Each structure stands twice: as C-alpha cells, then as structure tokens.
Amino acid sequence: MSYFLRVESLSVKTAQQVLVDPVSFTLAKGTPLTILGETGAGKSLIAAALTGTLPKELVAKGQIYLHDRAVSESELQQMWGRKIALLPQEPWLALDPIMPAHQQIEEVHTLVNQAPASTAKNRAQSALESMNLSHAKQKYPFQLSGGMAQRVAYLCATQAGGELLLADEPTKGLDRAHCDIVGDMLAEHAKQGALITITHDIELAQRLGGDMIVMKQGEVVESGIAHEILANPKSEYAKALIESSPNHWPKRASASSGQPLVSIENLSLRRNQTTLFDKVSLRVDEGEVVGIYGQSGCGKTSLADAVLGLLTPSSGEIVFHQTVGVGQKLKLYQDPPSAFATHVTLNQLLNDLQQIHSFDEAEIAPLMRLLKLDLGLLQRTPRQISGGELQRFAILRALLMKPKLLIADEPTSRLDPITAAETLQLLTSLATERQCSVIIIGHDEEALRKLCDKVINLHQYSLETLSHKVAITPVST
Hints:
Its main location: membrane. This protein is of the alpha/beta class.
C-alpha cells in the first residue's frame, strides 16, 4: 500500500538525553492520525521533526518518507506551505504583532499562492467569514482573545493548501462550539489531504477518529484505531487521560455560606465602540463557585476585569456586601508569562510578595506538593519552567494571599488534562475551604457544571442574542 507519509524509527535527542524514543507510523490520505498525550510527552517535538523546525540543539534520527520517497530536513523546509502546513500551539507567537488579521491571511495568498491582491483580499474575507471572524479583520493580534487568535492562525496555516497539515493543540483556548468548527475543518482537510493532530482534547480525538498514538514522556504507550483506544484503553496512562475528561468528574458539593459577597446588577460593558454584553445580573455568595462561559470574544475576561475594578462598566453597578481589602480580590490570568517578572527567581517573587502582603511562609511547601510543583523550581526564573508549571505557581501565589474573591481566567489552559482536572478540583476545594468565592471563566460547559454552584452563558447577554429573544436567565446547576 502507498502511504502519503511513512515514518521509521524517528527519535529526537540532545547531546546528553533522548527526548523522544524511536517511533514509527504511517499516514494515508483520508485517515487522520491523532497523537494524544500530556504536556512534555514529546508530541510537538515529533511535529517539529516532521517539518524540519527543531531547534539547533536538538537532533532528529530516523527516516521520513513522503509518497514513498525519503526526504531530508532541508527538503522538508522547502515544502512549507504548499506540501506541509503547521498550525502552531501558540498563535500569539506565530502571528505578526504589527499586522491586522486580514493582511496576515492575504499575505499567504500573495506570497505563497502568487495570487493578485484583489483575489487575496476576497479569499481572506471568505476565510474570516467561515470562522465567524469578519468583525476581527482589522484587529491586531494583541486585540484578539486567545480563541480568536487561534482561529486566525488556523486560517493562515491552511490558506496555501498544504496537503499535510500538522495541527498542534488546535482547540486550545476555544469554546466548545468553535472546537467543533475547527474539528469539522480538520476532518474535512483529512478527506482532501493528510492530517496529524497533536492534542490532549479527548472530544476532538473522538471527532476525528482515524488512527491514534498515545505518548507519555517521550514514549509510545499505546497505538491503534482511535475509537478502539478511546472505548477500551489498554494502558493505565491512556485510561487516566480519558477519565480526566469532565464527563467523568464527580459533582462538587457546594460550600456556599449563603451570605452575599458581591452583586452585579444590570451590567453593560462596551469596548472599542462595541457592546460586549448587556444587563448582566448575578450574585456571588461567600464560598460560592460561579462559572462563566461563552464564545471567544463575548466579554468573559472584560466582565472579570469590571468586577475587579480594572474596567468601568457602561451602565449598571457592582456592589460588594463585605469589606474586601487590598489583595483580597485577585485574578489568575489566562496567560501566566505576562503576569510575572521574567528575570528573577520564583523564590524572589514570593519574597517580594511577602514584603507587600504578609502571608504564612509555612504554607508554601504543602501547597506546592498539592499543586505537584517541585520545591527546586523556586530557584528558577519564570522563563526556566514550563507554562503549565508557571500557571500552577500563579495559583499558589494567589492562595497564599487568602483572598475573599478569586477570579480564575482559563486557569488550566496550559495544563495537560490529567493535571488540569486535578488542579481545578484542588483550586475550588482549597479556595472554598477558606470561604473564598471563586469565579471560573472557561470554555468547557461540562467542566464548569461539575465544579460550580452556578453557571451562566455570557453569550446569552450579547445584543445579537438578545435581539433574537433568547432567554437570559443564568443556568443553575
């Protein structure tokens, strides 16, 4: 049988260490391949090896065949765009920060497809419409939400028509509705060409089907037909990955005191001449966990910033029923690297915090153990640890402050599913033990329903939805 791609004994090494043990697989047109595993499993290194984009300090061994012809790293690089396309994991790093979205897509058509400017403009507009991004065409990457940036990156990656698409965590940061849109587009690409998807999104893996490789710490622990693995995993690790899906989580018991902490009354908010939401009303009680979800760009983060006093609402009011001192209403940011000084150690960051807001240093070690953080990480800078470790350190730093209100904006977006499930359940447990109210902003409605006392869909408060007379009553669990 002739395969589009055949990989034999591909490994990735440094001078001292093997990062990815030899892996072999084949890829046929119409049969997508999903590489499933946690952060650090080596999935993205395989993608980099297949595209010839490994860092200079890493070396790939083994052989890669395209259409039964062996290809070198330099040949792989020459195939970028037309033959091989990569959808990167970090869209903000992949997009040009000083170019609006429509121009980035147009550039693919003019530079790679050699299309005239008018044709490139029309194709870019059609592409943006297909992902519900017409309103964002003039926006720069820093003005896009995480989900919006990822969709723009997807369009840039696919406009040149590369036969082989490597999608690295393509649904990270997207709400479920747009996850399904991206999943359908990836499935359609697999029918026309070839697809390798790197993910820890179980629902996406189920949607795509085809073949699957499950990896852990650079090793293949299981491989075969995707639906068979997902239905009846043989390895303990694959079982743990599947069980980390919110569908398998227990429902959290409420710890609300019934005493109101903050009330939001008929709140409306505009940004850049656009009304994000209108007439939102919500009460958060002491020790209560409230979930807010909705499509990317509907104003979830803006609502959180308004509650924290960082944004002024257009109308309505926010009333705190208890005294909330400095440092007692906090936010866990969606992008942790932007929340830390990069050139000092984590230990120094905690020391600096201690100088401003006194906390019990004896709590550091036990909290780090609960959050699966090695104490040795305190001697490193934020740049020297993974994004997932930094996100858990952000949770540690917030809990040390003993806040009365903690707003968690996609707090596990950088974590693998097993650690994400444990971290979210631990976050809500530790916070509510201390009668801290928590507002969790997320895209996964099922996860929020399992964790929260109350869940609302903020998209129901958009003017577009209100004009269609959709009910705006918050969804209670």
